[in-house]
């Protein structure tokens, strides 16, 4: 596995997109299956947004100041996803708004991923050395080990509160 920060995030994006495709491919009556897929989506997004917010974004803000606006927008996009994830975690898969809320989450996250990959990842790669990207990636991998898996865990809640207060 590569320790390049951008490679790590792109790999996670692929996994998240696969979960989204799995959800979309289910029929209207696949309530239990959709519930299981959404549980995986919640875990993947909770971990992913945690390591981005705790490591990638602060490092990019320091090292590539011209991306400040992109990073601030990304924090806000994470906040929207965090709110939806918290709401989904509390919903039963057979709830009236479960599919709709999941669809909105998917659309928001897909937009966020496209912006990262198409707009600011190339700028980050151009601005930072391979060594710097590896250092950031290694820290992300360390943080992933202790990252929250559910939005109700204290470190995930802190991330959400920080987004509101900061």
From TrEMBL:
Hemerythrin-like domain span: 5-124
Region (Disordered): 141-166
Protein name: Hemerythrin
Taxonomic classification: Bacteria, Bacillati, Actinomycetota, Actinomycetes, Mycobacteriales
